[in-house]
Structures are given as structure tokens and as C-alpha cells.
Amino acid sequence: MVFIHDTRLPHVLEPGCYHDPGWYERELAAVFRPGWHCVATLDELPREGDFVTRELFGAPLLLRRAGGQVRAFRNVCAHRFSALCLAPSGRAASLRCPYHGWTYADDGALTCVPDPASFASPPGKSALIGRVKLTAHPVACAGQLVFVSLAEQPAPLDQWLGARTHELVTRLFSIDYQRVLARTIEHPCNWKIPVENVLETYHVDELHRGWLARHPRLVPVFDEQIEHELGDGFSEYRDRMGADFPPYRALVRALVGPVPCRYRHHHAFPNLIIGETPVLSFLQVVTPTGPASSRSLVRLYLHRGAPARAWTAPLRRLVGAAASWFLNGVLREDAAIYEAVQTGVRGSDRGGVLGAREERVWAFQRWLADSVTAP
């Protein structure tokens, strides 16, 4: 194993950082509201008029495909504050408020007001049509991932993500991949608890009871030659997963061709998590919803094959189903401990301890503390 450190490390964040409302507000101001956040994928919006609704740091969002692009609006009518859409997804030929019928163009500009004379100023002239607009938010895509920012003028998406992360999301979630799993999971805990959980394998022996975890030598997929990288705004875990297991190598060759067997787990600070194998790509975005609550957007994609092989279609379906089943099990076992950790940080009177195997947790905590406390 190749770690950066060979001794225990300080637990940078105090217990209060996992439940204190004041610290939570500073996190939102320093690292969340200025940035970009993946809230959907293009395959959720395949046709003109398709929409999804989301919530981002208390802001209700409406994302809709129109004119060949995805736009994001505050999901609030400019008249008297009704939500334009309550459904989590659907298709709308136009943006029309269900309360009083105010209607908006694809770009959010007001186009129709019932009884327009009552809104005229001066009498006989409408000052609303074309001038009133829905609140719009910046949208950018990388691969099939749709990012939204609540900032008025955010940095370019590729700059915010950084070169390494932008390359990964553009490649691993391109049209060469097909979605096989989409989940949204509510967590009864601070957002950092799910993030930190996936940054270390120290918990695996205790928390995960699946057959593969209990009998790793029977199916030698996981490689002991691993390495960590603690980068600028990210950390990574890499190994040669499956390289020494002939059945896995044969599966990779059948589905995507003669490519190296490897695994990469990438965490782009603060909350974007990516997993890569030759066959599958994984996305988890953990979004805070309160000081002690959070939500995960989870997506799993399967490589379509290069070149496409019709005879592998049944095998591909089997792999997609098996990977989804396995991932759901891991997510369920991980989530089972989150409430206990949240209860613990509320009652703790001391800081924590991190071992060398948890150095990615330490790197993340150090980055967050520096970002929140910076002038």
C-alpha cells in the first residue's frame, strides 16, 4: 500500500462542525453558494419541454430543455410566488403558473397575463409583458452532467472543477455511457459524514457484510497495490482492480475491448465523488440540506462498448443489473451508520483521531477548514 503518511493524523474538524448552524452557514457562503453543483443529467431531459425540479440550498429549481438547451429557473412565479411545477419531473409545452395563468417563454420572459389591463401602468399600456422574467440561474454541462450555480457570475465550470475533475466527468459521463441506476437518498446527518465515509476503507471489515467483502480471496478483484494522491482541490485512490483475476479481465475485454484493468476513486472538493472502472462509471453528489441533514444524487453508468457488439447485449444487461444490485447494497450498508455518527458528534466532548488509512479524510477536512476560515 502506498500512503502519503505513515502515522496518525489530526482530526481537523471539531464535532461542532457537523451540527452547528453557524458553521453550516459559513460553509454555504464559502464553498457552496459560489460554486457549481451537479443536479441532474441530460438523459433525464431527452426531449423538448422535459423538466425536472430540484432544491439546492433552499432554492427551488426548475430545469427544462427548450431550444436544444437546458435552462434553470427559480421555481417561483413572478406574480404571487406560486411554484410553477410541483412534480419531480415531466413535460411542459410552456411555463404556465397553475395559480393565475401567468405564462413565460422558454427564456423565462413573461408572455401572457390574464386581464392585462388591470396591470397596466400608465393606463392602456402594459409594462409587464417582455420585461418581467423568471429568476434564471447559470447552467453548464460536462458530458451528460448538468451543473447549476446560484452565483450571479460564477467562475467557468472547467475552472471551478479543475482540470483533472473536468476531464473525468467529461469522459466518464459522455454519450459512450448508458445510465443503469439513478437514485436520490436522504441522509439524517451532516453532509460531511457520507463524504468522509467513502474516502476510507478502514470501515469495510466492520460495516460491510456482503459475500464479496467477507470472502475477498475467493474473488480476488481488489488489488493490494494501491496509491493515494492528495491534490489541489481533490484526492484520489487508485489500484489495479481485477488485473490479476482472469474472469474479470475476460469480462472487460468482451464489453469494452483490450483496456487496462484499473479502479479510480476521485473526490473533487467539496462534495463530488466519481468512481471509474473500465466498464462502469459512478457519480455521487452529497448536497447539504441543513446542519444535520443531506441528500445524495447517485448515478451509475455502463460503457456502451467500443466498438458496439450486438452479441454482448445480454451480458451487458446482466452486468448492469449486477452492478446496480451491488451498489445499492453498499449504499444501504453505509447509510446504516450515518445516524449513529450524527448522534455521536452531537454528544462528543473531544476531537477525533485519524489513522494513516484515513488520510483522504484528513486532506478534505484541512481543505474545508482553510476554505471556511480564510479571510
From TrEMBL:
- Matching CDD domains, A to Z? RHO_alpha_C (cd00680), Rieske_RO_Alpha_N (cd03469)
* Keyword annotations: 2Fe-2S, Dioxygenase, Iron, Iron-sulfur, Metal-binding, Oxidoreductase
Q: Which PROSITE patterns match?
A: RIESKE
Q: Tell me which residues make up the Rieske domain.
A: 36-135
Tree of life domain: Bacteria
Annotated EC: 1.14.12.15
Gene Ontology MF terms in the entry: 2 iron, 2 sulfur cluster binding; iron ion binding; terephthalate 1,2-dioxygenase activity
Q: Which cofactor does it need?
A: Fe cation
> Which InterPro entries does the entry mention?
Rieske_2Fe-2S (IPR017941), Rieske_2Fe-2S_sf (IPR036922), Ring_hydroxy_dOase_asu_C_dom (IPR015879), Rng_hydr_dOase-A (IPR001663)
Membrane spanning residue stretches: none
Which PANTHER family does this one have? CHOLINE MONOOXYGENASE, CHLOROPLASTIC
Supply the name of the protein: Terephthalate 1,2-dioxygenase, terminal oxygenase component subunit alpha 2
| Organism in which the protein naturally occurs | Enhygromyxa salina
